[in-house]
Design brief:
The complex is a heterodimer of chains A (381) and B (232). Chain A is of the alpha+beta class and 381 residues long. Chain A is built from 14 helices and twelve strands. In chain A, a hairpin with a 6-residue loop joins strand 7 and strand 8. Chain A starts with a helix and ends with a helix. In chain B, 48% of the residues are buried. The chains are: A alpha+beta (381), B alpha/beta (232).
């Protein structure tokens, strides 16, 4: 088959403009496919990062409704709970709304120990505990804005009004590459004191002695606070994050639908190109058959050409997506923990390009292989 | 191998145009000897090109048998017919029919891609064929960079490169000026006299037909005259 490759290449580049436009359309479609697929894998990755030994307890009414600080002690007393900490979504504005990143006011005494997958020096932890306006930034966020130890970060509160001046006292490094480090943590005590003994938190994080008892303990925790002014809903960290994602609606289904539509649209464009190319070559196919090319060889030649065009576009689009998101460090304005086009996504895109090439070449290849030499030799054009 | 290179036995060919049957050949019997140069003449629609199509295995008779190089083409399926064409038939068309995106060299090499020859062996064969048609200085030229006569000589090189048993030429000089036509006819005659090749040529041109050993005249699918020519 390799001996036919120069001939296939010549045919593919016969109308350079048309071939380049077709390849470009496949590049764009595969770039979009990789982007959408990476949105999904980023979501999945954030779920994978969830620790099975951690439960999240929030207000049963809504994530936006607070829980009393007093629950911390009661949670700690439940048998099977080894540690309790808490956090609150702060949602402040840094510079302006375009510079969005996650900000949490957290329990200064236990939160950092609870999330041991983030690495900090003992000095950084101590400074965070001791200083009311201290904050810790993740290394990606620090790299993005050039934050260094001692830098001031002014935030404008939205949920908690006013200006909040924080000082960087630590830079959290991820233990594994897939962990999100686009965040800022500061002491919940800062809010508590400034609001005059605020006494409420967004959610509790409960560490279990035995991760296998997650379901059992979730029910126990919620039963403990049943019929109170602030009933709770306890779930695994994974389920909690999944709930966060589903707040965006059925984004998975939308992404699949749009992705499929794009792939089909481009496949039709590619199919049209191949059919036009094959139609223009009717007479030449007849010549090839006349000199002894079999129907099968003609079929394989046309299919290979289609595959070559599609695969070129597919590989270029996939590599482009990988490079663009790697180099730009895109995180969707901090929305995604990491945004890396994985090998799996690249493989899927390449697979789709192969299927697209075969499908779009199938009809023209079949038609060319069935061509009657005598009829085709009379063909003009 | 002995016996005729071509034997047509009671060959009938009927084309269907819509709901109308158009008979082109009617119970035609014909033999062409090995090494013979045969010219087919006759008005349009007389069945000349149909005979070429049948003996080269790109069309099938409605009735009768077509035997070429001892092979009954009616016994062959599509794949075997393709194999037969690649081994036994060298086509020369009126409008050259070179592949425009390939150079002269690549056009001539095309039929060899179906063989087991190595790249080096293919090159040797191509160069030899291009030498026969005196175009070794045009190997890298594309068809658009060649004159009509040169294109037809490249087409002849493509036809001879596999050393086929039989050449079929359909109006090979029809699109050429007088000088180019003479060169092409001279080439065909060389293939016949120097290399002993069998040639069946369809032509309207009596001067071209004069190069043949025998001229057959067809009218409405029937042989009406056969003229043997004596070689000097």
């Amino acid at each position: 088959m390799t001996r036919f490759l120069p001939f296939i290449l010549r045919n593919a580049l016969r109308s350079k403009r048309r071939t380049i436009l077709t390849v470009l359309s496949i590049v764009v479609s595969m770039f979009l496919f990789c982007t959408m697929r990476t949105v999904l894998t980023s979501f999945d990755q954030s779920l994978e990062m969830a620790d099975a030994a951690r439960l999240v307890t929030r207000n049963r009414t809504s994530l936006t409704v607070f829980l009393p600080l007093a629950y911390k002690g009661r949670l700690a007393q439940i048998p099977g709970v080894s540690a309790v900490s808490f956090g609150t979504w702060f949602g402040g504005i840094y510079i302006d709304e375009r510079h969005f990143f996650s900000q949490f006011a957290v329990d200064p005494d236990g939160y950092l120990e609870m999330y041991s997958e983030y690495l900090l020096t003992p000095q950084e932890k101590e400074a965070f505990r001791r200083e009311r306006t201290a904050c810790i930034v993740g290394e990606k966020l620090a790299a993005k804005y050039g934050f260094k130890i001692g830098d001031r970060i002014p935030l404008k509160g939205t949920i908690f009004p006013g200006n909040w001046d924080l000082t960087v006292r630590g830079i959290a490094r991820a233990r594994t590459a897939n962990l999100d480090t686009n965040f800022l943590l500061f002491s919940w005590e800062y809010i508590n004191q400034r609001l005059g003994n605020f006494g409420q938190v967004g959610w509790y994080v409960v560490k279990l002695a035995d991760p296998n008892r997650a379901g059992d303990l979730s029910r126990t925790i919620d039963a403990t606070f049943a019929n109170s002014a602030a009933e709770t809903k306890t779930e695994t960290e994974k389920a909690f994050q999944l709930g966060f994602i589903t707040m965006l609606g059925n984004i998975r289904a939308v992404i699949y639908a749009v992705g499929t539509a794009i792939v089909i649209a481009i496949m039709l464009v590619s199919m049209n190109t191949m059919m036009m190319a094959a139609r223009e070559r009717t007479r030449e196919v007849a010549i090839l058959k006349a000199v002894g090319f079999t129907d099968r060889t003609i079929l394989v030649l046309v299919l290979t050409e289609s595959l070559l065009i599609s695969l070129t576009g597919g590989i270029l689009g996939t590599v482009l997506a990988r490079v663009v998101y790697d180099v730009s460090g895109f995180t969707g304005g901090g929305f995604f923990p990491t945004f890396v086009v994985t090998g799996g996504t690249m493989g899927q895109a390449t697979g789709i390009a192969v299927v697209m090439g075969l499908l779009s070449g199938a009809i023209p290849a079949w038609n060319a292989s069935r061509l009657k030499v005598v009829d085709a030799l009379r063909h003009v054009g | 191998m002995t016996g005729p290179i071509i034997r047509l036995e009671g060959v009938t060919k009927v084309y269907r145009r819509g709901s109308v049957d158009v008979p082109v050949l009617q119970r035609l019997d014909l033999e062409v000897a090995r090494g013979e140069f045969l010219a087919l003449m006759g008005p349009s629609g007389s069945g000349k090109s149909t005979i070429l199509n049948l003996v080269s295995g790109i069309d099938t008779p409605t009735d009768g048998r077509v035997i070429v190089a001892g092979i009954d083409l009616g016994d062959l399926d599509a794949s075997a017919l393709a194999e037969f064409r690649s081994r036994h038939i060298g086509f020369i068309f009126q409008s050259y029919n070179l592949i425009p995106v390939l150079t002269a060299y690549q056009n001539v090499e095309l039929p060899l891609l179906l063989t087991d020859l190595t790249r080096k062996e293919r090159r040797e064969h191509v160069l030899a064929a291009m030498a026969v048609v005196a175009l070794t200085d045009r190997l890298d030229h594309y068809p658009r960079q060649l004159s009509g006569g040169q294109e037809q000589r490249v087409a002849i090189a493509r036809a001879i490169v596999t050393d086929p048993t039989l050449f079929v030429a359909d109006e090979p000089t029809g699109d050429l000026d007088a000088q180019s036509a003479t060169e092409v006819l001279h080439l065909l005659q060389r293939l016949h006299t120097e290399f002993g090749k069998s040639i069946v040529m369809v032509t309207h041109d009596p001067h071209a037909a004069e190069r043949a050993d025998r001229i057959l005249h067809l009218e409405k699918g029937v042989l009406v005259e056969s003229v043997e020519r004596k070689r000097p």
